[in-house]
Amino acid sequence: MRWLLALAALAQPVAARLLAEAAEKELEAEEEEVLVHYAIAIGVSLLGVTFVVGHVMEVYGVTWMPEAAVGVLTGLVAAGLCKATGQTHLLADERFDFEFFMTFLLPPIIFEAGFNLQVTPFVRNLAPTAFFAFIGTFLSTFVVGGLVYLAGQSGLCYPMGALASLTFGSLISATDPVTVIAVFNKIGVKVDLFSMVFGESVLNDAVAIVLSKTLLLFTTQEITQGSVLTASLLFVKIFAGSIAIGVAAGLLSSYVFKKLKTKEEAQNHHEHFTMEAALSFVFPWVAYFIAEALELSGLVAILICGMVMATYTRYNLSEKGAILTMRAYKAVAAIAETFVFVYLGMAMVSFPILSHTSSLNLLVFGLLACFVGRLHIPIGSALTNCFRGPGSSLPPISLAYQFIMWWSGLRGGVAFALAAKIYSDNNFPAKCGGGAELAGCDPNNAMNDSEAILQTTMLIAALTIFVFGGSITFLALKANVMETASGGGAKSDASIVNKELEENSQVMLQCDKNAFLLRLLTHETSYKQAAEDAKALEEEAFPSESHPGSSKGSRRPSKTSIELTSPPYTSTAGKATGQTFKGWLGGKLSTTTPPLN
Amino acid sequence: MRWLLALAALAQPVAARLLAEAAEKELEAEEEEVLVHYAIAIGVSLLGVTFVVGHVMEVYGVTWMPEAAVGVLTGLVAAGLCKATGQTHLLADERFDFEFFMTFLLPPIIFEAGFNLQVTPFVRNLAPTAFFAFIGTFLSTFVVGGLVYLAGQSGLCYPMGALASLTFGSLISATDPVTVIAVFNKIGVKVDLFSMVFGESVLNDAVAIVLSKTLLLFTTQEITQGSVLTASLLFVKIFAGSIAIGVAAGLLSSYVFKKLKTKEEAQNHHEHFTMEAALSFVFPWVAYFIAEALELSGLVAILICGMVMATYTRYNLSEKGAILTMRAYKAVAAIAETFVFVYLGMAMVSFPILSHTSSLNLLVFGLLACFVGRLHIPIGSALTNCFRGPGSSLPPISLAYQFIMWWSGLRGGVAFALAAKIYSDNNFPAKCGGGAELAGCDPNNAMNDSEAILQTTMLIAALTIFVFGGSITFLALKANVMETASGGGAKSDASIVNKELEENSQVMLQCDKNAFLLRLLTHETSYKQAAEDAKALEEEAFPSESHPGSSKGSRRPSKTSIELTSPPYTSTAGKATGQTFKGWLGGKLSTTTPPLN
């Protein structure tokens, strides 16, 4: 409802009208409530439609349209129907709301990504990821902003003002983690590639949010050396502070769960997995809201908290608790993710983005500028590869990886949410960038810069989701960057488990040489063992989900088959036919027996 | 945020002030945002504290304070600290908000209750449950309202007005499902008793909401024969409509899942449990919001939808999907439940309920009236027992059951939410019921009737949670109404599983003689088999959770042990020591082998 307040603040505060309205308010509030209920019911139904259509397309092996695009399309069609039938009131309630997006939709998605992320590849590729996210986004902001401004001033497209161009550059430079997760996790690219693309997209959101906030300050302030320095310091403070909060919350959760001893109790058949799952929700959300309250980045805090919880807390949960949390957060994130796309689709109708066509030429140049702006990928990769020579344990970033990363600059929710906020705050009220008549821009008839930013951002987001998202599977296959045996997303195949486990323990050991932290926070004694346990748990939680290619239980935990050394009983269980549960139980047991391939 | 609007509407709409405020609004909005983030962080932290303290108390076998009371106490202490340190702004954000409660907290709790409810005992005891919920609540409203009014008029306590007394009677007559679930599910009473107490509490909420809404109409309308008739018809419409929506959504979900064939795919190792869990969320929430939008009862709709989904949809989910949904909804409900209690505790400080002590004597008479009002329990039980003679398959409602049901009139969130709404709308602005000087009530110094209702409701809710909730375990033990072998909540013990399964299939068969519905909506062919599968699945999902008394795996599914007829392998797995996963896997397998007792 916050956007209602924002809109109210926008409106001319005419006293007489306000007085009259106050009397009507109660009645209106009731009608509004009914509308809100309808709007929620419709929104949730559209989620259902998206899930069903997405599932059917997956089963039939359709890859040219990602589920994200299905969501956008569903929202678009539904909002179009609303508009066509004159239900504009209803449509108003479906408008994209920055606060709702940031408070309810983004945290579960980012937390889940951190919680179910393989921490090791992320840490291993931290240097290039950080380069792409920090320096890259910074460069991209100025490249995109500059190109769009110059194109406008040369009369090639709608002439946006300089500061507006730069702000647009900052928000469009943020690749979107939601889209990246939705697209990449589905197709299952190699884990190193995924962690770079995903890591960049999460971190650069925070960069984009801070950068655009800072730039917006200059709409009311003078640009001085001092203010630029302050902005830079703010940057450092925001990242350091958010990381500190995330780490603190994560470590605290490990310690609390260790002391609660639910794992030991579960071994004595006193199950507490409901409580474990409920309590596990507390720490990341507190981290998120404390970071937001301190005006730091909640996204970074909750991501880091998720990663720390995956590294330490998970060992202190009972098996059922660990599996329940992994799966439940994944389901919640799937709901939030799909909601974002449906919401985006509806916003394309509910915001007046196509009411002015004079600035559509901006889209072409904006998109071109985005491609140029993402050239920080080869730059950063070249730099990284200087340190990844023949002596290094890490392979250099291949040209195929670079191409996929350059291509996969998927934009989405965050860029759009920032643009929607600029639109509703009307930060750039000047039409045609304040300079008249350039590029045929008629100040009497054109949209203003705020509207131009919203329009262009929204169309770029939709284009990248449909075009890039739709082509990524094909390209990833061509470029040979898919996980072998089409194993799943951020998870690796059983055949490379052992090698990975070795690596995992090495990376961890470098941060915590004597495993002091591990022993303090969990009951594990060595990182190697911990990594093996983690892998087994993960394979148990997500056996072969959503990956029609990987079948025959080839991705079962290696651990399990070590223990169950006497397979004959499986066939016994499997043969106990005539029972409905046969399939379930039989399947469950038999999947543990085939030899790893 | 809706209460902000409500409060704004309440305030005198002075034009000049509004104009000045509009300018400041943006700055305030930003400060407000920071405060809201702190408030959420604090609220979520208190959840964590409650979970931890509740768990520790459970482990140490403390029964005199239910976890619900821990939550209230936590909220109370935290809000007290806020107040003591002068953080009143913060406190304002923690105020109980009717809309938030009804939109975010209640639906998951009620849905989970329906989804994890044993449908058969509920159907079996539908007649007395309906009597208690409908006729009982109706009687109780007039008894409580009348007694409180008479006590006031006789000068025994604060003299509330007639309509205010009746409205108070209507909202305080609703026993609270959240408290009932929190208290009863923990201690594990017999399933028939639980389903009556719980069923009454869900249905009478809807009754109370409708009844108090109707009564509030008369604050501005004349009471005529016509208006009373309209109100009665509204009643029928609300219940019939809500049930229809819930059933429709539930059946649709079964059909959709059947057609998606995720269960069959899972048997071929194509897992889709994340999608199943995400999609399962769609149907009940759509039902809830459509019912609310049509001004019916969302609670009734979502409860019925949950029950239908448990009866049919669950068979169409893969095993992992079925278990994930059961557990995940339970965890979500646990979070929402605890939030309600923490919220209640905070509200006791954030609302000015103790600023006036002159109406505290109302508490005594209100509480007494509640006890008298709940005498519809023996009346309804006596009527029921007329039909449960020696020839009936159902046992009569024993005196012990009647006593527990009479005693367990736990009040909580719903009553309080209604009172908070009356307070913020200030429906009864008259002080001392409009008649001056009665019972020493000084109109210059006393609170008005709205405040008196809020104060009394809140204190009665707290008292019932602490006193009734704290004593119920002791009394249930004494009255011998606990599930044998201290089995869990709405779930029965393994020793009576077979008998129950027989009964289950009988009750279902009565509604759907040829299992037409079952065969249309699932792949099951007989209700008997379906009931057995359901039982096995349930026992798999909640092995022996939260019941320290039930150990040694005695509550494992009978089904499992039928199939796994060759136990020797278990010891093999159990002996594979030196592995961290030993305990988990060993435990998992060995629990299936001990003979049922």
What does the oligomeric state look like here? homodimer
Q: Overall mean pLDDT score of chain A?
A: 76
Specify the structural class of chain A.
mainly alpha
Helices and strands of chain A, in order, run as HHHHHHHHHHHHHHHHHHHHHHHHHH
Distance between the termini of chain A: 54 Å
Count of separate structural domains of chain A: 2
The first-level CATH class of the largest domain in chain A is given as: Mainly Alpha
Total helices of chain A: the number is 26
Q: Number of DSSP strands of chain A? A: 0
CATH architectural type of the largest domain in chain A: Up-down Bundle
Account of the 3D structure:
- The first copy, chain A, is mostly helical and 597 residues long.
- Chain A folds into 2 domains: 2-482, Na+/H+ antiporter like fold (Up-down Bundle), CATH 1.20.1530; 494-566, no CATH class.
- Helices cover 71% and strands 0% of the residues of chain A.
- Chain A has 26 helices and no strands.
- In chain A, helix 25 (568-575) packs antiparallel against helix 26 (582-590).
- The longest helix of chain A is centred in the N-terminal third of the chain and has 45 residues, at 15-59.
- Chains A and B meet through helix 1, helix 2, helix 12, helix 13 and helix 15 of A and helix 1, helix 2, helix 12, helix 13 and helix 14 of B.
- Chains A, B: GO terms for molecular function: potassium:proton antiporter activity; sodium:proton antiporter activity.
- Chains A, B: It is a multi-pass membrane protein.
- Chains A, B: Residues 61-477 form the Cation/H+ exchanger transmembrane domain.
